[in-house]
Design a protein that fits this description.
heterodimer, A: alpha/beta, TIM Barrel, 11 helices, globular, B: alpha/beta, eight-stranded parallel beta barrel, three-stranded antiparallel beta sheet, 22% strand
Chain lengths: 305, 331
């Protein structure tokens, strides 16, 4: 019997890519990326959806043919009427699991549709996890802000309810969401007349301090870390703590190489350091951190386990 | 819920002295927290011991005022007792309500203290009628403090659709992010509002002169640079000056505070129950002045008279203000 490995989940695309790039990305993931689950759909800004909505059914079909389980993403901050309707509609379909990224959706869950709790819901402790698990949540992707000590406690708590715990293992970390669009603001526009300027930055717009230090990245109403979370060298420790899944967040560049590196390390076919070298090669420009889990702060330099 | 009469004025207190000043100045209700990590203004020297809380609640009750205790950080995994004790003590000391954000803690409070009134903290960021319905149904929440991402029109629509009260911020510091869903401070310093009750904490602030400029840093990141001799603003992360593409300046928000006093009539019309003043960390004198002024404004509003503008102007002297997300153009 083969050793049980960690589940790899591809998180929802956070950025505003064109319909063509969107379709190509998911086609390649479907055909080549060794991930088990793919969360697909808009989680950041509902204004982006019309541009690629038509691409989603084909992407889902192809992902399924590629053996992936498909999970529908939900919006992180639901305020408009049409956003409320869209949230409700996610539980009208019966084919796919839904990932809840705003508790608005807890109104619409139904026993026959499995659901997961995404990283933008505040699950900081075992009491909150227990409540949501009793409501039917089967899987939790924990908030990226949590330290390792909390992850250990939450993984143990989830096991009691037969639920599984996933951590944000790769990619720029979501740090905040706002009513205001910062991409629009940086271009002298407002959210309602934004001209979709966020489409110019496939991995977010760099925010640097006035002395030139890399700091954050803005992505519409969302603010991300400059650093890319990278837990590839921490996979063993996470598995020992009872974590059963790793989330990889989409970025431009060779994402299949990123997924392969994680898959190889998770299956113990290569050493963590080897996997790390592969990531370094795949995304030479990225600054990595595992600071939220193991360091003094989220922006801390990589700490070796 | 909408259509009620007088607006309730909910005022901050970081110390027993500020608490008494707020009640004396006309606060209908005062909100405050215990002196530990259980509340979102966990600053050194601030907040209430159990004994101080007991006395303050009694003081308010003698004057016909109410006390709300904020237990609105998110309990640390494996360390729930600090938070559940705070809820137990709030109930025991006779608080008129607790202000909670965490689902686990709401669940605990609703089961253990069924007669304790629960308010949903702004830190829960319940931004629409469906999210509010979830909290009302699951935990019997009676009032929701709305996140600062909504316009007055959106607030009115929410009030038409829900059966619980709403409370909105009217004056003071302004979060530009959805509250309780921001880990910017944690990214730069390791301390966050959600986990530690502190945003951009003073322990991680450094002022340094470099090349004729005064630089204020948070966790090593430069947040402001001003000419030496000028007053350097406190480096609150989201109010800082940065470079984003061709834009150089306040990427997230100008160093402004919220003043929605001019919107009191519209907020009343929108069915809001209570108006909240931010600033548990502010001095007693500030609290007293702001509360007195807003109480006069609310009395004028209740009597159908125009709000005396001069009352409010003095409080924001020398400081830029905004009506924030209440007006759609802010977005």
């Amino acid at each position: 019997m083969g050793q049980k490995t960690l589940t790899l989940t591809l998180g929802p695309l956070q950025f505003n890519w064109s319909a063509e790039v969107f379709a190509d990305f998911y086609a390649r993931v479907a055909d080549e990326a060794p991930v088990d689950r793919v969360v697909i759909g808009e989680s950041v800004c509902s204004k982006r959806t019309p541009f690629y909505r038509d691409q989603i059914p084909a992407a889902i079909e192809r992902l399924k043919r590629g053996g992936k389980s498909v999970v529908l993403a939900s919006l992180a901050l639901v305020t408009l009427e049409r956003e409320r309707r869209a949230a409700r509609d996610l539980f009208k379909q019966t084919e796919h699991e839904v990932e809840i990224d705003d508790l608005t959706l807890m109104n619409w869950t139904r026993p026959e549709i499995p659901f997961a709790i995404g990283p933008l819901v505040n699950v900081y402790n075992e009491a909150t996890l227990a409540f949501l698990a009793k409501c039917g949540a089967q899987r939790f992707c924990l908030p990226p802000e949590l330290p390792f000590a909390s992850v250990e406690v939450l993984a143990a708590a989830a096991a009691k309810y037969g639920a599984s715990v996933e951590v944000w293992a790769y990619g720029r970390m979501p740090l905040a969401v706002s009513g205001r669009c910062y991409h629009a603001r940086a271009h002298g526009l407002s959210k309602d007349s934004c001209l979709f300027v966020c489409a110019q930055d496939p991995d977010g717009l760099a925010v640097r301090t006035l002395d030139g230090a890399d700091f954050l990245a803005i992505n519409g109403v969302q603010t991300l870390s400059h650093k890319y979370c990278n837990l590839i060298r921490d996979v063993d420790q996470l598995a020992q703590a009872g974590v059963t899944g790793l989330r990889l967040s989409p970025h431009s560049g060779d994402f299949v190489a990123v997924a392969r590196a994680f898959a190889e390390v998770a299956a113990k076919r290569i050493a963590p350091d080897e996997g790390f070298a592969l990531l370094r090669q795949a995304v030479p420009e990225a600054d990595f951190s595992n600071g939220f889990l193991f360091g003094a702060c989220g922006a801390a330099p990589l700490v070796s386990a | 819920m909408s259509g009620q009469g007088k607006l309730e004025l909910v005022c901050p207190a970081g110390t027993p002295a500020a608490f008494r000043a707020a009640i004396d100045a006309g606060a209908h209700t005062v909100y405050c927290g215990f002196n530990d990590e259980t509340n979102a203004r966990n600053f050194p020297g601030l907040n209430f011991s159990r004994a101080e809380m007991t006395e303050s609640i009694k003081f308010a009750h003698r004057r016909g005022g109410k006390t709300l205790i904020a237990v609105n950080t998110f309990p640390r995994a494996g360390d729930l007792a600090l938070w559940t004790n705070a809820v137990d003590d709030a109930a025991r000391l006779g608080a008129d309500a607790v202000i909670l954000a965490d689902i686990g803690l709401l669940d605990y409070a609703s089961r253990r203290h069924p007669s304790l009134r629960l308010h949903l903290s702004v830190q829960a960021a319940a931004a629409n009628a469906d999210a509010i319905a979830f909290y009302a149904r699951s935990f019997g929440v009676k009032r929701v403090v709305l996140p600062r991402v909504l316009t007055v029109q959106e607030i009115a629509a929410i009030n038409r659709a829900i059966a619980v009260e709403t409370e909105v911020f009217i004056f003071g510091g302004l979060c530009v992010m959805a509250e309780g869903r921001c880990s910017l401070s944690s990214y730069a310093t390791g301390k966050s509002p959600n986990m530690n009750g502190a945003c951009s904490p003073a322990s991680h602030v450094d002022y340094h002169e470099e090349d004729g400029e005064l630089v204020s840093r948070l966790g090593g990141f430069a947040i402001h640079r001003v000419a030496a001799g000028q007053a350097a603003p406190y480096p609150t992360l989201c109010k800082g000056c940065f470079q984003a593409g061709a834009y150089r300046g306040h990427v997230f928000e100008d160093p402004v505070s919220l003043d929605a006093a001019s919107l009191i009539p519209q907020l009343a019309e929108a069915g809001v129950t209570a108006l909240k003043i931010e600033g548990r960390q502010r001095s007693r004198a500030y609290t007293e002045a702001v509360v007195r002024s807003f109480r006069r404004a609310l009395d004028a509003q209740a009597a159908g008279k125009p709000i005396p503008a001069s009352e409010l102007r003095g409080l924001t002297e020398g400081q830029q203000t905004t009506s924030g997300a209440y007006r759609k153009t802010w977005r």
